[in-house]
Design a protein that fits this description.
Blueprint (H helix, E strand, L loop, with lengths): L1 H16 L10 E7 L7 H8 L2 H4 L2 E7 L3 H9 L5 E5 H9 L4 E6 L7 E4 L12 E5 L5 H12 L8 E5 L3 H9 L5 E4 L3 H7 L4 E5 L3 H8 L7 E6 H6 L1 H20 L2 H8 L8 H11 L11 H13 L9 H4 L3 H7 L2
Parallel strand pairs: 1-2, 1-3, 6-7, 6-8
Antiparallel strand pairs: 3-10, 4-10, 5-8, 5-9
């Protein structure tokens, strides 16, 4: 057992030593599922666009699902090795008896926006209406219910949540009056408002917004999730992946908005550069500076899902969060 532990430590130290260098060997193929395409996963796209995964010896591809639950199903079934999803959904999965760990945090503010049809002027005005989310049980579902409750509505009686999928289908559902509001994100939010197809009812992605809606300075929001089994069997691979994520997060903190937008533009094919750049600016204050999940951020995410009546019991921090790999990447 001691020999195995020492071998793992040596391997991790070797990985850390190559953090800023290239990789001479063959690349290991890795697949990461993402809940949907959106700017809350921007560090993931930067790590790919700037070849940071390759520097760590990984050949990473992304599978985009139509909601967190579907992405997490792919993770649990072994179809993918990593999952980009929401903190609240990882907590929900733990409550269902499926143990996984968050190994890196991409955003410490919630970057969802509640957008209503032009005739809807307030959250209270959604009483008796339908709100679109990606999928029932997804982070969009939890936040939508939470915002409704905060406006004095009963999320189980006064509104109806409807799973409508990703950006294109969500935009269509709102425009065709299939739903009267959507729990949106960037760059969809910018486009809906710019084209006059929606009214902003709530934004959540700054510290003042976070205090207003969540009574908290932070919300552990978009995260990288891995199964306990994969961590136990492949700690080196997890460390390599997280090394690249931390490097991307630090790069985002130092780069210009134009450089960030140019790097991620290929991941939003068909979208004009101005929309991409403005989306980066809108969400820029929400990206983590360290990638480490805090107790407060965890508590807020769990509180949102509890208030939305998705979670039924407390979820301990250590049950779903493992900051070890991110701290290693930071040299802590």
């Amino acid at each position: 057992m001691k020999k195995i532990t020492v071998a793992i430590i040596i391997s991790i130290l070797m990985i850390l030593g190559s953090f800023s260098g290239g990789w001479a060997g063959d690349l290991k193929k890795i697949t990461c599922a993402e809940a949907v395409r959106g700017f809350f996963f921007l560090p993931l796209y930067v790590a790919m666009g700037q070849n940071m995964f390759q520097e760590q010896g990984l050949d990473v591809s992304i599978n985009s699902a139509q909601g967190g639950p579907l992405a997490m199903q792919a993770l649990l079934s072994g179809q993918v090795q990593f999952c980009a999803t929401g903190h609240g959904q990882v907590a929900n999965m733990w409550e269902q008896g499926k143990s996984t760990k968050i190994v890196n945090q991409m955003q410490d503010k919630c970057t969802f926006y509640l957008v209503g049809r032009p005739e809807i002027k307030s959250i209270a005005g959604l009483k008796g209406k339908m709100i679109g989310c990606t999928k029932i049980g997804a982070e969009t579902d939890g936040v939508g219910r939470y915002l409704a409750a905060g406006a004095g509505l009963d999320p189980e009686k006064d509104i109806t949540m409807l799973g409508v999928g990703g950006m294109s289908t969500m935009a269509s559902a709102l425009q065709n009056d299939r739903v009267q509001a959507v729990v949106s994100w960037q760059p969809l939010t910018h486009r809906l408002i710019k084209e006059g197809k929606g009214t902003l009812l709530a934004r959540l992605n700054t510290m003042p917004d976070s205090y207003t809606h969540f009574d908290s300075p932070s919300y552990s929001f978009s995260v990288i999730q891995v199964t306990d089994q994969f961590i136990a069997q492949n700690p080196e691979t997890v460390q390599q992946f997280v090394n690249a994520m931390v490097k991307a997060e630090q790069w985002i903190g130092a780069a210009s908005m134009d450089d960030i937008a140019r790097t991620v533009a290929p991941f939003f094919a068909g979208m004009d550069f101005d929309t991409i750049r403005q989306s980066v600016i809108e969400d820029s204050g929400a990206f983590t500076k360290t990638g480490i999940v805090t107790q407060k951020g965890h508590d807020t995410a769990v509180a949102v899902f509890t208030a939305a009546k998705i979670l039924k019991k407390e979820v301990p921090f250590e049950a779903i969060v493992d900051n070890t790999f991110t701290k290693n990447a930071l040299g802590q």
